[in-house]
Design a protein that fits this description.
mainly alpha, 4 helices, globular
Length: 104
C-alpha cells in the first residue's frame, strides 16, 4: 500500500467505522460480507469502487471492550527487516480503542 492509498483508505475507513458504531444493521453486514458492504458504502458516498485496489481483501475483527487489537505489518520472508515505507506506516501508528475505553 503506497502513501496515497493509505491516506485515501484512512479517510474511507474513518467513515465506515463511524457508521458501524451507530448502525447495527450496517455493522452486521460489514462482519458478514466486508468487501461487498465496503463497496456499497463507497457507492453511497458517491465514490468509485476503484478507490480501493482490486487486490485488497478485508478482515473484520470485532474487539471486546477489554481487548486491544494490534495489526502487524507483513514482513517478507526474504528479509526480516521492514521497508522504509512499512516503517513509516508503523511509526505513524493506528490504534482502534473500543468505545467507552478510558486509559488509566
Amino acid at each position: 500500500m503506497n502513501t496515497t492509498e493509505l491516506s485515501s483508505w484512512k479517510t474511507i475507513e474513518a467513515g465506515i467505522l463511524a457508521r458501524a458504531a451507530k448502525d447495527p444493521v450496517f455493522r452486521q453486514h460489514l462482519i458478514e460480507n466486508p468487501r461487498a458492504t465496503i463497496f456499497e458504502e463507497l457507492e453511497r458516498q458517491g465514490l468509485k469502487s476503484n478507490t480501493i485496489p482490486s487486490g485488497w481483501s478485508f478482515k473484520i475483527v470485532e474487539a471486546d471492550e477489554n481487548e486491544v487489537v494490534l495489526i502487524l505489518p507483513k514482513v517478507s520472508e526474504s528479509s526480516r527487516e521492514l521497508s522504509s515505507e512499512d516503517l513509516d506506516h508503523v511509526s505513524a501508528g493506528w490504534v482502534s480503542i473500543s468505545p467507552g475505553y478510558m486509559p488509566e
